[in-house]
Amino acid sequence: MNMKPINKYIVIKKVDEELRSGSGLILSQEDASNFRYAKAEVVKVGTNVDVIAEGDTIYYDKSSGHTMLIENEPYTIILERDIVVVI
C-alpha cells in the first residue's frame, strides 16, 4: 500500500477482540462499547512520529480520529497523542 501520513498522524486498523469480565464472562458488544479505549494495529506512521512503529498493537481513545476508505478498506486516522498504551 502506497500511503504516507504526515506530521503526527497515524493510520491504524481496528482489531476486534473478545472482552471478558474479571470473572471470565464474555461481555456483549453493547457492554464493550462503553469502554473508552479500543485496540488497533498500527499500519503506517507519520513523518514526525517518535515512539510508535508500524506493526505495533495499541490502545487508543476511540472518540478521537476519523475513519476513511483507502483502497476499499476502512482505516482510522488518529494523532500520536491519542494513543494511551503500546503493547
Task: Give a written overview of the molecule.
It is a single chain. The protein has 87 residues and is mainly β. The protein has one helix spanning 29-32; strands at residues 9-14, 37-45, 57-61, 66-70, 73-79, 83-86. β4 and β5 form a beta hairpin. The model has no long low-confidence stretch (mean pLDDT 88).
N-to-C order of helices and strands: EHEEEEE
- Helix tally equals 1
Count the E strands.
6
Helix content: under 10%
Structural class of the helix and strand makeup? mainly beta
Largest sheet: 6 strands, antiparallel
Question: What would CATH call the architecture?
Answer: Roll
Taken from the alpha-carbon principal axes, the silhouette is: elongated
Q: pLDDT below 50 for ≥5 consecutive residues: which ranges?
A: none
Strand order of the largest sheet: 4-5-1-2-3-6
**Total number of distinct structural domains:** 1
**What is the CA-CA span between the terminal residues?**
24 Å
